[in-house]
Specification:
By secondary structure, this protein is an alpha+beta fold. It is built from 13 helices and eight strands. The protein binds iron/sulfur cluster. Iron/sulfur cluster (SF4) binds next to helix 9.
Length: about 350
């Protein structure tokens, strides 16, 4: 759950109350906490490409990519995506397969479709000008409270607090709330809103997210390096919610190949347009191996809470099937491939 709460900078005492605990920070504490976080952020922030500019479109793209995806996985996708679609107009005029092809590997493809849809709305209905407030940004398809607050505060300096899972964890620990108490979005959102720096909300919010991502870690927070240690009620002594159990799923796929060198082709099938996951994307056909056959290799691929263990068979020759197509290997990078397909095709040398 996320929440956006307007800054209450004039408030003299900030109360963060919970069912079983009440935390109070005086105005001086709040001022010092803001200064400590901003100073720490200046020194420790990672050098990430979307931090180089205040362009709302670039910040928007980065925030959408970063949802449920690690920074390391986003970096190359972000570079290629912005090279292909440097402006909101460029994204708006692209076709959906072009957008999905560049999103391939990031997963959660609904994000890409909604981003594309929203870019069209900005280009066609707002003459290419991004909305400037969190409230207006939320009117765009797929833009939730978190993304709206991030873009509005970082690009336009609106004093609204960003609350994602990392920020929620930091605030819960600082306030001394249990995981159950912190689950109330309004409580966490109100606390975040009172802390956000009205002068530098963008840097403050990025500092909060950075603190959660690099110091106040879920399982072993690095409290000795934390700028908020003097105010923190838990300092690492915090109950951690149990991990969600991962499911395992075993399956098999086949890489059908024909031709050689630049003329080599691979057989792909397209997922149904109304599939609940990865609709319309291209993937390797599934395979029913005979008892005597052994896979060339096995790959592991995690999607949400499922660990897929996939046996991969490589076969040559002519094969036909409904909704499938021979695709030249030279054109694979322009196809909207599922992450698993990309992983396997790289492994067999069909893609760089
Ligand atoms: S002192 Fe430790 S637990 Fe508290 S906010 Fe900092 S890193 Fe998190």
């Amino acid at each position: 759950m996320t929440a956006v709460v307007k800054s209450a900078a004039k408030r003299q005492v900030v109360a963060a109350s919970a069912a079983s605990s009440t935390v109070q920070f005086g105005a001086d504490d709040v001022r010092e906490m803001r200064a400590a976080l901003l100073k720490w952020y200046e020194t420790h922030k990672r050098d990430l490409p979307w931090r180089a500019a205040r362009d709302p479109y670039r910040i928007w793209v980065s925030e959408v990519m970063l949802q449920q995806t690690r920074v390391a996985a986003v970096l190359e996708h972000y570079r290629l995506f912005l090279a292909a679609f440097p402006t909101v107009q460029a994204l708006a005029t692209a076709s959906e397969p072009e957008v999905l092809a560049l999103w391939s590997g990031l997963g959660y493809y609904r994000r890409a479709r909604m981003l594309h849809h929203a870019a069209k709305m900005v280009a066609e209905e707002l003459a290419g000008a991004m909305p400037r407030t969190a409230e207006e940004l939320r009117a765009l398809p797929g833009v939730g409270a978190y993304t709206a607050a991030a873009v509005a505060s970082i690009a336009f300096g609106e004093p609204v607090a960003v609350v994602d899972g990392n920020v929620e964890r930091v605030l819960a620990r600082v306030a001394g709330w249990s995981a159950a108490e912190a689950r109330f979005a309004t409580r966490v959102g109100r606390f975040a809103g009172t802390l956000v720096d009205p002068e530098r909300p963008g840097d403050f919010n990025q500092g909060m997210m950075e603190l959660g991502a690099t110091v106040c870690l879920p399982r072993a927070p690095l409290c000795l390096g934390c700028p908020w240690q003097p105010w923190c009620r838990t300092r690492g002594e915090h109950a951690v919610p149990a991990r969600r159990a991962q499911q395992r799923q075993h399956s098999a796929r086949v890489v059908w190949l024909r031709g050689t060198g630049m003329r080599q082709q691979v057989r792909l099938v397209q997922r149904a347009a109304d599939a609940s996951l990865m609709a319309g994307m291209w993937e390797l056909p599934s395979y029913e191996a005979k008892a005597a056959e052994s896979p060339e290799f096995t790959v592991r691929h995690a999607i949400t809470v499922t660990n897929h263990i996939v046996d991969v068979y490589v076969r040559n020759g002519a094969v036909r099937g409904p909704e499938s197509e021979w695709v030249p290997v030279s054109e694979l990078s322009q196809r909207a491939l599922t992450g698993l397909t990309r992983k396997v095709l790289r492994r067999v040398g069909c893609m760089p």
